[in-house]
Design brief:
Elements lengths: L7 E4 L7 E4 L1 H4 L2 H15 L6 E5 L2 H13 L3 E4 L9 E8 L2 E8 L8 E9 L3 H12 L3 E10 L14 E6 L4
Parallel strand pairs: 3-4, 3-7, 7-8, 8-9
Antiparallel strand pairs: 1-2, 5-6
Helix pairs in contact: 2-3
Length: 173
């Protein structure tokens, strides 16, 4: 399936110079969402995973159905103030600003094998922060998986030491 054909490009969003990759058009096609989830289900079925981690917020869209399909817990990594229990936090830089992510301190046990899911890898800050949080809780990060990767923004450089899997790559200017 040509997943790239389901992604809309929105110039100058959320600010001038950004070429936003809109996945809402992909989500409007049940067969495209099913393709993403089933591709990852097949990829991770024999990896002896303990949980799927989803980065706020679009990582939830893909991570939760994947966790369900694999019969695994889904663990959200959220923006500050969204999780009701004790949290670990990590700040990071975005392509157009900065932010912080949090995870519950009891999200999983030390040594648990996890996959971290998000919709997009651009500069790598969000996923680097999610990896740091999971490592602080002593997870074994099997892979970081994204629907879309923007290789010219060099996000993989922030994820050195991790296996990174992307379904679509877009070359941006």
């Amino acid at each position: 399936m040509d997943l790239a054909s389901f992604v809309r490009n929105v110039p100058d969003f959320p600010e001038p110079g950004i070429q936003f990759k809109d996945i809402t058009t992909l989500l409007q096609k049940p067969e495209a969402l099913a393709h993403v989830v089933n591709t990852w289900k097949d990829r991770y079925a024999d990896k002896d995973l303990h949980a799927i981690i989803g980065a706020e917020s679009r990582g939830f869209i893909f991570g939760a159905p994947l966790a369900f399909a694999l019969g695994l817990p889904f663990i959200p990594v959220r923006k500050p103030g969204k999780l009701p229990w004790e949290t670990e936090s990590c700040s990071y830089d975005l392509e157009y600003g900065s932010s912080t992510l949090e995870i519950h301190t009891d999200a999983f046990e030390a040594g648990h094998r996890i996959v971290i899911i998000d919709d997009l890898l651009a500069t790598g800050g969000t996923l680097q922060a999610a990896c740091k949080l999971c490592e602080r809780l002593k997870a074994d990060i099997v892979e970081v998986a994204v629907v879309i990767e923007l290789p010219p923004l060099n996000g993989r450089s922030k994820l050195e030491g991790y296996d990174v899997h992307s379904l679509i790559e877009f070359q941006v200017s």
